[in-house]
Amino acid sequence: MTEVHIAIRDKTYRGQSSGPTLRDLRLELASGEFVCLVGPSGCGKTTLLNILAGLDRDYSGEIRIGAAGTVPRIGYVFQNPRLLPWRTVRENIALALPAGTDPAHVDHLFEVVGLTEARDVYPERLSLGMSRRAALVRAFAVNPDLLLMDEPFVSLDPPTARRVRELVIALWRERPHTVLFVTHDLREAVELADRLVFLAAGPARVVGEVRVDLAREGRDEGAVEAFRRGLYEAYPGIRALL
Ligand SMILES: Nc1ncnc2c1ncn2[C@@H]1O[C@H](COP(=O)(O)OP(=O)(O)OP(=O)(O)O)[C@@H](O)[C@H]1O
Fold it and tell me: Where is the ABC transporter domain (predicted)?
């Protein structure tokens, strides 16, 4: 499993007049930890994930993912599913896979998320919930050391979102890996995380961390809601960060 060390000195988009998006942002993720990142819209959460994924190298600072000299496998579930419309679901997933990936592993993931029947259709035939599940298969299929998830369940109806969250936890427990999950939904964060990390904007910085000390087995709706209410009472300023 993989530890992640983040120490970004500065990330300023070219031509950005409003100052840096990230400045002196430090965060450590323990190996196998599930961390939810919560922060206001536009504060720089996607920017941070893009840097971790290696999609944005225009920053100063240091990122370490896993042991020195190793090349980490990174799974990324984007805000929208980003499936190519001219390829079937299976072909979309194949594009992301490293050579030598066991097809039985991918078929197992399709089965876990309930998409076995939809593997060979084109994305236009999928509902949003199905597209989001396909994006999960793509991210998990690379056997990630680090999994990045950027508000992956927005605009799903609550029962579907709950079901997909349960799938994520089931897949994560099947093969534990380090996760950084972005959300604006505190209930979702409490349901999923080992630890919550709160970011404030301008430039983005960590303003608080809370360990979710609820047993995974007992994390039902009642326990999650009680924990969330406790957070609001203990830290009323949280509302401004959602
Ligand atoms: N390619 C870009 N060029 C210039 N500015 C950008 C670019 N991408 C993002 N920004 C700016 O950087 C800031 C952070 O954006 P980012 O998408 O990282 O925020 P976020 O916290 O993920 O927002 P949300 O929660 O709404 O998804 C915003 O002010 C945004 O306008």
Answer: 6-226
Q: Are 46 and 32 in contact (CB under 8 A)?
A: no
Indicate whether 14 belongs to any domain.
no
213: phi then psi, degrees, rounded to nearest 5: -90, 55
For ligand 1, atom 25: residue with the closest CA: 41
* Cβ of residue 19 lying under 6 Å from some atom of ligand 1: no
Q: Kindly give the residue spans of alpha helices, DSSP state H, lying in 75-157.
A: 89-96, 103-112, 128-141
Asked, for residue 93, whether it belongs to a domain, the answer is yes
Q: Is residue 12 part of a domain?
A: no
Q: Is 123 in the pocket of ligand 1 (CB under 6 A)?
A: no
Predicted TM-score of the model (pTM) = 0.94
First vs last C-alpha separation in the chain: 30
What average pLDDT does the segment 14-30 reach?
Answer: 91
| Residue 42 CA, ligand 1 centroid: distance in Å | 5
| CATH code, domain with 49 | 3.40.50.300
The pLDDT tens digits for 52-70 are 999 999 999 999 999 888 8
Neighbours of 157 (CB within 10 A): 10
Question: How far apart (Å, rounded) are the C-alpha atoms in residues 58 and 206?
Answer: 21
* Tokens standing for residue 192: 């999923």
The residue segments making up the domain with residue 169 are 32-55+72-196+206-240
Name the residue type at position 28: E
